[in-house]
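Lab notebook, page 48
Experiment: co-folding of the full assembly
Goal: obtain a model of how the components sit together before planning crosslinking
Operator: M.T.
Materials (sequences as entered):
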Amino acid sequence: MTDMTAEIEIHDKVVILKDGGEVLLRPMTPDDCQTLIGLFATAPDEDVLYLRDDVRDPAVAKGWCENLNYGRVFPLMALADERAVGQATLHFGCGPERHCGRVRIFVAKDFRRRGLGKQMINVLIDLARRRGLHMLIAEIVLDQARLIKACIAVGFELCHTLKDSFMLPDGNTRSVATLRKCLQPPCDEFGPLAEE
Amino acid sequence: MLPEQTKTYRNLITLKDGVQVLLRPMTRDDCQTLTDLFASANEEDTLYLRDNVKDPAVPKGWCETLDYSRVLPLMALVKDRAVGQGSLHFGSGPERHIGKVRLFLAKDFRGRGLGTKMLNSLTDLARKHNLHLLVAEIVTDQAKVIRAFEDIGFQPCCTLRDYFMLRDGDVRDVAILMLRLREPGHEF
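Observation: model returned without errors.
Model output:
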């Protein structure tokens, strides 16, 4: 497991939003359980529809806080005063995917389109680079066109779409777009040209 | 499919050359048989597997933590010798309708129709578990394996560039193939 203290020192960061609002970005800690429950409890139904976990169930947030392991998943909290206004995570791959990371993000409705998501993703990109990852992947349900566009704006590229690969709670399915951001130049069989 | 039905699943198949192979779910007692299967495999055979199967602790771990509701591993046996292993990995949450398949065959049992029969069995099990989609992720170097999957109906979806990192740090592209087990519901 990674040294949690070191990560916390590195990642405490106050960001200024486009409208001047101040938000603290810092790693999630075991004490964030209630704050996190509050973030998801106020989210409307259509907001949580496309999340992978049933975040309305307090046991889910509790489980995340109790099983923190920054070497496996790095969760970043966004706080305005004492209120959680966003959460983003970087999931580290293992085995043959040890060079890949997956990002997920959730931002409270009243904090969208204010630049917060971009700042949060940039913190995760920075961490991924420092951990030596080669690429970041974001899997987003195709319905979430704004989120896809926002990821493209921070350098992700659309790779492909998998039809019907996301099942909603009611059993309906949606297609998922996979986006990728390269953090290192691709391997070149012939290597770079020598400077003349 | 009930857990009891999964446990008792048996399929005795006959290969093109007449050899009979028993396909059945892996049990806790298969540890040594499985270790032997991978021990006889050479380096290039195991290069594209996700786990370091040469380490006896890996098959041991699989046998000790068997959970058919998460992963359903299928053994191919000729008498007491394991000649192949396939697995069906059940998705969860929004991927609860998806299964991922993986396959490994002993070198002397390739090109004899065993892989196709094992994939058909895994597909059959996936249907019985009400899955909608089967997915296979295959390193693009393995052109023959990709073709074999296509032959039984898997469709290539996309290629993920540099997605698979070998033990030495080199990277390879991965092809994603998909087999639809159910037609999607239509809007009208």
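Interpretation: Chain B touches chain A through 25 residues (CB under 8 Å).
Next step: discuss with group before ordering constructs.
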